[in-house]
Write a structure and sequence with these properties.
By secondary structure, the protein is of the alpha/beta class. It contains 14 helices and 13 strands. The strands form 3 sheets. A 7-stranded mixed β-sheet has the order 2-8-7-6-5-3-4, with helices on both faces. Strands 9-10-13-12 form a 4-stranded antiparallel β-sheet. The protein has a two-stranded parallel ribbon with strand order 1-11.
Length: 374
């Protein structure tokens, strides 16, 4: 019986230290090192006021998918605001970054593109490749030599996909070199900016902007709203022909109800807040530097990262769970990252820094890690 198989499967997961559980979020008296709220805007009063104003001015629901009757003027205004900010032709809204990446890969598969991916790209890209059946090859993480070999083996229509800031390791992709390689070999480079938008670049416009690339270098970039924008949903931004082609085949957008018009207004206002948050980005950069200095004195194994994501490698799921549990007992939330999200070697804790953190929070984290667990 299937119920017996499920029971056995769950028991195995627990024994292996791989069983997942939801945990209620509690902010009171807790130092949270697992939130993607990089600019600490989720509780910002300006953002809350924007969403309240949106509910006063616009419908709570869109009434349908964007291609039926769910595309409202405020949706168009939000897409245009992102397009103007990023210096691209057009944008397309999605209900999540996950669905955006599924649609992007589906479009590439529809046009018989050969996809080249960094081995450590997000699960949504892997799932999109599996669902679309698009042929793909992988190159070693941030390894330009291996990428060069892989792209030279492609006959035509190669499309490379990478994250600008990798969600697990926090490492930053060499986008300028990647874009140059793609152009040299008649390929295209597409970038997921989930963990860079709002944090890196002029006005927080992402790593593509930081590395002085344009839509001619990166014809599409994916910008999810669930990180620095303190919301949910996503936009894909880029060249007009690419956006139009995406709209024709974006099944996860075509067959999904559009995001709330009231919510879209909140996002529109939040975009301005993010762009004007240089003070928050400066403090976050200082915190990263402080954290990196603490790592230099740590006997633990840390990934080399200059972003707000810092990865502690423990190499064992049970050990990662133990560290996380004991940290929670000390009032610190830092959740374990395990297979298949990361490799076994990289299994451990992902520490995510936010604007609201203080140096003493970092000091407490390292004190707990070093004194209690070693």
């Amino acid at each position: 019986m299937l119920s017996n198989k499920l029971t056995h499967h769950l028991a195995e997961r627990r024994q292996q230290g791989m069983h997942r559980q939801r945990q209620l979020t509690s902010e009171a008296g807790v130092i949270n090192f697992s939130s993607n709220d990089y600019l600490s805007l989720t509780m910002d009063q300006r953002v809350r006021n924007a969403y309240q104003a949106g509910l006063q001015r616009y419908p709570a629901g869109s009434g349908g998918s964007m291609l039926v009757c769910g595309y409202h003027p405020v949706h168009q205004a939000l897409e245009k605001a992102f397009a103007d900010a990023l210096g691209v032709d057009d944008c397309l809204l999605f209900s999540s970054g996950y669905s955006a990446n599924l649609s992007l890969i589906n479009m590439l598969g529809h046009h018989d593109a050969l996809v080249i991916i960094d081995k450590q790209v997000h699960a949504s890209i892997y799932d999109g490749l599996k669902l679309s059946g698009a042929p793909f090859t992988r190159y070693l993480h941030n390894d330009l030599s291996d990428l060069t070999l892989k792209i030279q083996q492609c006959a035509h229509d190669a499309v490379l996909i990478t994250e600008s800031v990798f969600s697990m390791s926090g490492q930053i992709a060499p986008l300028a070199e990647i874009a140059r390689l793609c152009k040299q070999h008649d390929g295209e480079a597409l970038v997921d900016e989930a963990h860079a938008f709002g944090v890196l670049g002029p006005e927080g416009l992402g790593a593509v902007a930081q590395q002085q690339l344009t839509q001619d270098d990166v014809p599409l970039r994916v910008i999810p709203f669930g990180k620095a924008c303190a919301a949910f949903g996503a936009v894909i931004a880029g060249q007009g022909a690419w956006i139009d082609a995406l709209l024709q085949s974006a099944r996860s957008q075509i067959y999904s109800t559009a995001i709330s018009p009231a919510f879209a207004y909140g996002l529109l206002e939040t975009l301005d807040i993010v762009r004007c948050a240089d003070d928050r980005r400066a403090k976050l950069a200082e915190l990263v530097g402080y954290f990196r200095q603490a790592i230099s004195h740590s006997p633990l194994t840390w990934r080399d990262s200059s972003s707000a994501i810092q990865q502690l490698q423990l190499g064992c799921p049970q050990r990662a769970l133990s560290y996380s549990t004991k940290l929670r007992e000390r009032g610190i939330v830092c959740l374990p990252m395990r297979q298949p999200t990361v490799s076994r070697q990289e299994t451990g804790l992902r520490v995510t820094l936010n604007y609201h953190h203080q140096p003493e929070d970092i000091d407490k984290l390292f004190m707990c890690l070093h004194e209690k667990f070693l």
